[in-house]
Amino acid sequence: MTDGAGIGRRVREHLARTRARLSARARARPKGPAARDARPDTFSTAILEAVNVGVLACDADGRIVLRNAAQRRMSGVSGGDLLEHDHVWTRLRIVSAEGAEMEVTSSPLLRALDGEELQDVSLRFGPAGCADHELRDVLVTARRITAEDGTLLGAVAAVTDVTSERRAQRELQASVAFHDAVLAATPDLIYLVDPATNAILWISRNVFEGYGYTAEQLRDMGSDIVAAIAHPDDIETLTRANRQIREVADGEVVRIRFRVKDAGGEYRWLSRQVTPFARDASGAVTQILGIAQDITEAVTAEERILAASLHDDLTGLPNRRLLLDRLTSALSRAARNGAHVAILYCDLDGFKRVNDTSGHRGGDTVLIATAERLRATLRPEDTIARLSGDEFVVVLEPSPQRTPDQARIDALRAADRIQGAVREPVAVDGVQHYVTVSIGITFADAAADPAEALRDADRAMYRAKSRGKNTSAVYDDTFTATIARRAHIEGTLRAALTRRAGALRGAARPTGVTVPAGAGGDPSALTVVYQPILDLTSTRVVGVEALARLHDDAGEAIGPDQFIPLAEEVGLIAELGRHVLQTACQDLADLHAVTPAWRHLSVSVNLSARQAARSDLVHDLTTALTRSGLAPHLLTLELTETALLDAGPATMAALHTIRAHGIKIDIDDFGTGYASLRYLAELPVTGVKVDRSFTAGLPHDRISASIVTAVTGLARDLHIDCVVEGIETEEQLQALPPGVNGQGFLLARPMPPAQLARFLQHHHARQ
Question: What CA–CA distance (Å, rounded) separates 294 from 401?
Fold first, then answer.
């Protein structure tokens, strides 16, 4: 910027020399107005016209006597226009630095004439009437001019045009204000850092507002503020990123995530992007620009999503995915320690009954309580997971100090503690619910596959359930043969059901024959046999019980005690039950068609708990009766007490509907369950069957004899049928009270339909 004061000094010196010459001339000139025509000589004028500083001079009366080209350009007023007026300021608009319009009397020259010395006074001026944007920014220095004797000759002003500089200054201020506003508004943390020392050279103010630090606190942290507030685990990440940034080109960005501690001691997650900002002459990075966004909420949300993907929503326990991950880690630790990992697969007994009686909310309450009890029972380092439904898995953390035998004992003791905790009642809406737990245990070493080890524990759990529930079983080598046997039975059953369904769809039932369908030539390994039920008073056959039989391809018989529980486990029981129902109804209808004397015979079909709970049960029954033409009152459904115990409101309603259709309902294995008398009152039961375990004690077991007598008497008083099962000896038969029906090997063994027809013919002939 041009030094206006220096130019003014040179102008004054020049004017002083000029004035001396003019003074000599003035003594020879006439006095008065003529003196006003005095002007600088040609040499002086040329100098003034050449300088870039505006020069303006007036006489003692304030009239312009000198005005150079620079001043004319600044003011926008031509020389001719100006000299027609006594005062230059009447042709200009002058505005003070504060923005106020200035009067003519406040013009710099007139103020100088009054004796005021002006040094770089900031003004804005332009032609009179001009707009604000047409005003020029100037610095004015003005002095009065006097003769040697002190006589006032006039005043001179040096005017420096600083419009460009002021405009740049205003733009810079606006830019600074804009960036300050942006920095104030952005939540991002922005800073400059020296990569050599990690010293913070500059940091945005939101480090104070967003993180609660004061300037004094930051100063106390020293030059490396980031290291002072970063999480200790992230220091190496930051150092590595600072080394990496030295190798990247300008414009490239290095991104990292790290944590910093706020003034309250809480750690917050930042996502930082850094790029080279300045380099020295050798090209080395001397300053790094960092921009960091607070991503704490996003990271928290990610952690919640991850936790949700690894944990059960209801109980908060790890799910299968996290369980397998932890089991893998436990097996790795066991490999280092030479230990074994114990896996306990837990399945609740009686949980379905809770759901049926108290709904899903009651079931959820039991599951949550079970999870809490498992946590309280086991060690913090043990893993407890919920897989699905009512299945839980426990992984006991291996201990290198325990021998394999000790680890086995530890697992069995843990199983005992779990069973003791789970069997405690759980209250739901004032109702006490009782469940137990069956536990399968396996021990896995480092070579074990986690998923396979989990399956072994699952297989052991099913063995525990087969032993009567609320017990535990340890997986061993015999399970391999058991698994193979189960797979063989399941494959045989599936194939038989498929072939049987195809045979029933593809062949029409013969009519007008003396031997019912199914007497022989059936390619299926699945058949239905019938055991007669006799009125023990008249020895008349009153009905038959339909029983499923299964043979494999080699002709080996597979007992019902093997394939029926398996059908329950693998989800085939509904299809099996449907097949037995349809076959039994059709076979009995065919028997009725062959001999009218047999039309009083009824058929009993066993109904499992899962069948009873199916929503399509009523449809299956009506379909079987409609297709076969069998009368509904000749069909009896036998439900065990256990099935009734697990029956929910929907099942109970379905059973009432079934009875309304005329189908009979008997309670099988009566006396072996827990709620027989209650169901006699709640259901329209048409009969009971005394379990063979009581018959086996006759006639010598006094308690068995008393129970049989009580049950038969109860049936007589309720006017319902009573069938005594398992009659195998003459002594047992003679020990039974009168008026009951009987069933057992002594009376007749189960037989296929053709043999049944011959038995009925022979039995009828004997009567």
Answer: 47
More reliable by pLDDT, 20 or 626: 626
The H or E element that residue 579 is part of is helix 573-594
**Contacts for 163 with CB less than 8 Å, ≥ 6 apart:** 136, 137, 138
What per-residue confidence (pLDDT) applies to 547? 97
DSSP code string of 439-470: EEEEEE-TTS-HHHHHHHHHHHHHHHHHTTSS
The correct CATH number of 494-509+525-766 out of 3.40.50.720, 1.10.240.10, 3.20.20.450, 1.25.40.20 is: 3.20.20.450
Residue type, 84: E
Buried b (16+ CB within 10 A) or exposed e, 89-119: bebbbbbeeeeeebeeeebbbbbbbeeeebe
CB 542 within 8 A of CB 602: yes
- Mean pLDDT, residues 219-231 taken together: 75
Q: Which residues contact 711 (CB under 8 A, 6 or more apart)?
A: 670, 671, 688, 690, 694, 722
What distances in angstroms separate CA 630 from CA 354, 621, 627, 633, one per listed residue?
37, 11, 8, 9
Tokens 């790795």 correspond to what residue?
332
The token pair at 86 is 């006594």
Q: Specify the higher pLDDT residue, 633 or 203.
A: 633
Summarize the confidence of residues 560-564 as an average pLDDT: 91
Any idea which residue has 């309720």 for tokens? 718
Region 93-99 average pLDDT: 85
Q: Between 38 and 182, whose confidence is greater?
A: 182
CA–CA distances in Å: residue 245 to residues 202, 215, 260, 740:
18, 28, 20, 96
**What amino acid occupies position 63?**
R
pLDDT digits (tens, 9 = 90+) for 360-416: 889 999 999 999 999 999 999 999 999 988 999 999 988 777 777 888 899 999 999
**Coil, helix or strand at residue 549:** strand
Instruction: Return the SS3 of 606.
Output: strand
Work out the end-to-end distance of the chain between its first and last CA atoms, rounded to an integer number of angstroms: 140
**Fold equal for 4-168 and 186-300:** yes
Domain spans of the chain, in order of start: 4-168, 186-300, 313-476, 494-509+525-766
Q: Would strands 118-127 and 92-96 be described as parallel, antiparallel, or unpaired?
A: antiparallel
Give the angle subtended at the CA of 69 by the CAs of 118 and 89, to the nearest 5°: 50
* Cβ count near 740 (within 10 Å): 19
What tens digit of pLDDT does each residue of 139-177 get? 999 999 999 898 999 999 999 999 889 888 888 888 888
Which fold, 313-476? Alpha-Beta Plaits (3.30.70)
Q: Per the CATH hierarchy, to which homologous superfamily does domain 186-300 belong?
A: PAS domain (3.30.450.20)
Q: Give per-residue pLDDT as tens, 26-49.
A: 444 444 444 444 455 677 778 888
Ramachandran angles phi, psi of 543, nearest 5°: -175, 180
Each residue's pLDDT tens digit, 53-90: 999 888 888 888 888 888 888 877 665 555 444 455 56
**How far apart are the C-alpha atoms of 514 and 730, rounded to whole Å?**
33
- The CATH code for residues 4-168 is 3.30.450.20
DSSP, collapsed to helix, strand or coil, labels residue 234 as helix
Decide: helix, strand or coil at residue 314.
coil
